[in-house]
Specification:
two-stranded antiparallel ribbon, elongated, alpha+beta
């Protein structure tokens, strides 16, 4: 499969990221590019014990609360993270996302369902 076809299909949303990465894995194997093959495998199946790339950390500064607050019912009320955690350390707000791309796509497509890991 030509790499330009994969790029076109991905740009036109006619294939998922999962499918594109699977094809990239095969191409990397065919051309003997072990580094690219390892990266595609980690993106597909998760990073496990492998070092997580910088782009796999999400900045999280908003928590939402739903429940009873006194005599009021509260739904999706934002909570100020700085005050809750009593910190201003920016490293505190980064969450690792080591899961495979299928899990991430599932969460993006259905955030309320939260497939495997809730962020």
């Amino acid at each position: 499969m030509a790499k330009s076809k994969i790029i076109k299909e991905l740009a036109n949303n006619s294939i998922s990221l999962d499918v594109a990465l699977s094809r990239l894995f095969i191409i990397a194997s065919d051309i003997g590019n072990d580094e690219l093959q390892q990266w595609a495998e980690c993106e597909l199946h998760g990073y496990g014990k492998n070092k997580l790339p910088e782009y796999r950390y999400a900045k999280n500064t908003v928590f939402k609360y739903s429940g009873i607050n006194g005599s009021y019912k509260v739904t999706d009320a934002p909570l100020p993270l700085l005050e809750i955690m009593k910190t201003e350390d920016p490293a505190t707000f980064y969450l690792p996302i080591p899961d495979g791309i299928r899990t991430i796509e599932g969460f993006v497509n259905n955030p309320k369902g939260c497939p495997k890991v809730c962020f």
